[in-house]
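Can't paste images in this forum, so I'm doing it all in text. The chain is below; anyone willing to post the predicted structure tokens underneath?
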Amino acid sequence: MSSYRKEGNYERPYVTMNGIGMLLLLLGLAMAEVFIVAAVRNPVLIVIVAIAIVFLFPGFFMLQPNEAGVLTLFGDYLGTERKPGLRWTWPWNIRKRVSVRARNHAVDTIKVNDKRGNPVEIGAVVVWRVEDTAQASFDVDDFEQFVHVQSESAVRHVAARYNYDNYEEHDAHELTLRGGADAVGEALRDELQARVQLAGVRAEEAKITHLAYAPEIAGAMLRRQQAEAVIAARTKIVHGAVSMVEMALRDLSEKNVVELDDERRAAMVSNLMVVLCSERDTQPIVNTGTLYT
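Text version of the structure:
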């Protein structure tokens, strides 16, 4: 691989002529040809000027902004012209236009396994552009198809590094696909860049556009998330109820509202916990006796 990269094709500049100047020269030769045919009628001059016109005409080519022209001669790479506008080069030079504009590629939603092996559906979009026109033209067969295939491969590889979500408390600070979208996008861009560098392409940005559990486990994971939410809510309610009961007992004791022995204290704690933690409105019961009768 390293020996191949040393022998690979890398972009180098190639200076072509200003097409406007050559176009004016071509028009001048055409006018001269008309004058020679009409007035001078010299066959030698007519042939020479005609050959010059035929020679100049095929050398014109046009480049738009953010477009490059890759020039070759008999299969040998000459260089790349990046200056936009009307340009002229030797007619025998082969010109191939390559766009260096930024491009989007949407990776279709695919099914992959996360770090724990759970099947998830994931989609992404990548922004890329051709950076080295020589590599893009000669080091791969079709650089656009190359980027498309490597993008899907990079998404699969990156998705396998992370869990979809934090499944356990000890994983709370671990980067996940759902919670670390920006960091995962950067990791995807770096992974893609390493894969498409061979084609002279620069990956500029990558973002996750779709993320969900696969249908076969989506229902089970939804129930798990609901259970975790219920447990978290109940835990918070219990913690709050204990604090309120503790505060109530402390205030009653400090203000000498009522003297409570251990049995009455336990009964009061039980009643308050039922009232504070119950999911339904509690029904008060008036006790006409005492705890001891």
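The longest strand covers residues 201-213. The first helix runs from residue 2 to 7.
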